[in-house]
Design a protein that fits this description.
The protein is of the alpha+beta class and about 700 residues long. The protein has 22 helices and 23 strands.
């Protein structure tokens, strides 16, 4: 048994020895392949794609690492990529296939330098950025082994980049769209003005005197000047902007040391106060607006519409700023543009507004608290929209002083209040609506003589002490006389004859209760706050009192139905035609027969020496008009304010329909105070 086991053991030993002799190479571990240039390049580019700056730095040659630390390397890439808002980075090796050369027969190492090509794509703040460049991998001795490393220099960030260069992101300001009138005359345009500034290092021996002169001219304090000169960025040789001045003011500073002028781009409002509430103005974005709008690309220092059309049309007027990403040398000179997104100018608007008419109307009403609208009644084109008292929007664009702002803000006449956007009781100007509703409903018979005696009338005892009052004791009264004498009692009875349901239903045909369809926020008209609740309210509503409220523009549009055979023109504020716009805003607000009848009666209301609108009479014209006096008081019999209206057009040549409301006409002739102003506006328009 032992012999047999020994034989087996011997046989196994011989077999193993034989195997070692004949095939030992199969048991020797294969040598680890020497790292190749291709491996190193692929690894470096992978780290780059992951923005692993430490990993990238570890793969640089010792010579490259000797020129900057790992922190400097990471900071350089990080600041550049963050500054240009790099995103979706792709880095690819686009070289021909690479392979490391093996050692030759004598054991000499193969190539020690390997060129490679790579391609970079990324999104940036200025749009896509892509480039192809060449890099170098170098074999180095690392202890007892040899390794491939990347021979880095700044051109690997961007091909044109050298040591000392910087990557600069510059905003290309877009041009704000302009607003012009129907003839191209500017209403809100881009212009320039002299900007007064101080170079601190050149103020001379009496800086206090120069600062005082500057502060006095700009309407600010010396402390304001010092605050600007004390900004952290200010240096003795730099121009420090202080404020905008007029061209004529520049001469006053000819001998003032340190005072320098530069032309500054800014918004200009050629009509000034005459169109302030229409155009509005721009101003520097505030913190609250910036927080709300930062996602739309706004940034500190941007100008934004603050009021009027500048605010309403902000999104389209603003345009889109462009951006350029470029390489600059150490001296600030641009070497190469890496990516650029051009600025897109804002949309410009040509309005239907007639700047000449706007100025003419303003000259007539600027001394009063008032609202005015003018339209071309056939086309619905808005020719003028204005409010007074007013302010100069140029002051906001130039830089409003605290003194001037306080003067306007504390003015009891409220020049910042946009009256043409507000609703007012239309008073007797509303009587044409009541007349049209009643005539078309068959409850008012224009030729019928209605017996009305005295100056006061009450329906019955249910009204208690309440009564309706008129100015002229005319008896009997038909529709023509009711309009000539503006008889409140006649129209109160006409409203009662309709009943509140029919009255409200028919008033809606005039757009009462709807927003006027133009690109400007105007108060919606109303017949009542929450429905007509009593006969007294219905009677008062018949002559434009009670809770009836309309803007001056809506009153003008209601009168356009008289010109257009019963259709109310569709209002237009821009000349650009919209094919989707219907020819009329409200079709058949009244019948053609009623429109013709009212036109004749309104001509008579002005032409008749006894007519309340006779103050607007023009020889040779056929002014069709209606006055209105709206009383504002707490109770019947109490003293209160009165607003005067006049609405009219030339029936022979209806190219202009005016609606003017002036506040506080009590003791100044009521609506008779307004009529002569309207007359002069018509006369000026006829001459023009």
């Amino acid at each position: 048994m032992k012999m047999r086991n020994g034989a087996i053991l011997a046989l196994l030993v011989m077999t193993v020895l034989s195997g070692c002799k004949n095939g030992g190479e199969n048991l020797t571990p294969e040598p680890t392949p020497e790292p190749t240039a291709e491996d190193a390049i692929a690894a470096y580019l992978a780290e780059w794609r992951q923005l692993d700056y430490a990993g990238m730095y570890a793969m640089l040659t010792p010579d490259a690492r000797s020129k900057l630390t790992a922190e400097q390397f990471a900071e350089r890439y990080g600041k550049i990529y963050e500054g240009i808002k790099a995103d979706k980075l792709e880095v690819e090796n686009v070289s021909p296939a690479l392979a490391s050369s093996p050692a030759d027969a004598t054991g000499t190492a193969g190539p020690v330098v390997q060129k490679f090509q790579y391609e970079v794509d990324m999104d940036t703040v200025a749009g896509p950025l892509a480039f192809k460049h060449e890099g170098t991998a170098r074999k180095i001795q690392d202890g007892e082994t040899q390794q491939w490393r990347i021979d880095w220099d700044p051109s690997m960030i961007f091909p044109d980049m050298e040591e000392g260069d910087k990557v600069r992101v510059q905003t290309l300001a877009s041009e704000r769209g302009e607003i012009v009138d129907r003839t191209g005359e500017g209403l809100a345009v881009n212009g320039t003005a002299p900007q007064l500034g101080i170079v601190p290092g050149q103020l001379g021996e009496e800086p206090a005197a120069v600062k005082a002169q500057v502060a006095n001219k700009l309407g600010i304090t010396v402390a304001d000047v010092d605050r600007k000169l004390g900004a952290s960025w200010v240096k003795p040789e730099l121009f420090v902007p202080i404020g905008i001045v007029d061209e004529a003011d520049m001469d006053a500073f000819q001998n003032a040391p340190g005072v320098v002028f530069q032309q500054k781009k800014l918004r200009v409002y050629p009509l000034g106060e005459a169109a302030a509430h229409l155009t509005g103005y721009v101003g520097e974005i505030n913190a609250e607006q910036l927080e709300r709008l930062k996602d739309k690309g706004y940034k500190t220092g941007d100008m934004i519409g603050k009021a009027g059309l500048e605010q309403v049309l902000e999104d389209k007027l603003r345009g889109t700023d462009g951006v350029v990403v470029a390489i600059e040398d150490s001296g600030g000179q641009r070497k190469a543009v890496l990516a650029e997104r051009p600025a897109v100018p804002g949309t410009s608007y040509q309005l239907t507004i007639d700047a000449g008419l706007q100025k003419t109307i303003y000259e007539e009403i600027k001394a009063d608290a008032s609202s005015a609208a003018a339209i071309e009644p056939k086309t619905g084109e808005v020719l003028a929209l204005l409010s007074s008292p007013s302010y100069d929007p140029n002051a906001f664009a130039r830089g409003l002083s605290n003194k001037q702002y306080a003067a306007w803000n504390d003015d009891p006449r409220h020049p910042f209040l946009n009256r043409f956007s507000k609703g007012y009781a239309p008073g007797s100007s509303f009587k044409i609506v009541t007349a049209a509703i009643g005539a078309d409903a068959g409850t008012l018979h224009p030729e019928e003589a209605v017996a009305i005696s005295g100056l006061k009338w009450t329906k019955d005892g249910s009204w208690g002490s309440y009564y309706v009052k008129r100015v002229h004791a005319v008896n009997p009264v038909d529709l023509s006389k009711a309009l000539v004498y503006s008889d409140n009692i006649y129209f109160a009875q006409a409203a009662l004859a309709l009943g509140k349901e029919k009255f409200a239903e028919a008033a809606a045909k005039f757009g009462i209760g709807e927003a006027i369809p133009i690109a400007y926020p105007l108060a919606e008209s109303q017949l009542s706050n929450k429905g007509i609740k009593s006969e007294i309210q219905l009677a008062d509503s018949g002559y434009g009192q009670g809770e009836v409220s309309m803007t001056s523009l809506h009153v003008a549009l209601a009168f356009s139905a008289i010109v257009n055979g019963g259709d109310i023109a569709y209002p237009r504020l821009t000349l650009e035609a919209d094919p989707q716009t219907p020819p009329a805003w409200k079709e058949a607000a009244m019948t053609p027969e009623t429109a013709e009848l009212l036109k004749k009666d309104l001509v008579q209301a002005v032409a008749s020496p006894e007519g309340v609108g006779h103050g607007a009479y023009i020889q040779g014209a056929a002014i069709a008009g209606k006055t209105g006096t709206a009383e504002l008081k707490a109770s019947k019999g109490a003293e209160g304010e009165e607003n005067g209206w006049f609405v009219g057009f030339d029936a022979n040549d209806p190219r202009l329909l005016l609606s003017v409301m002036i506040e506080n006409v009590r003791g100044r002739g009521g609506s008779g105070y307004v009529a002569p102003k309207v007359k002069r506006i018509f006369q000026q328009a006829m001459r023009g």
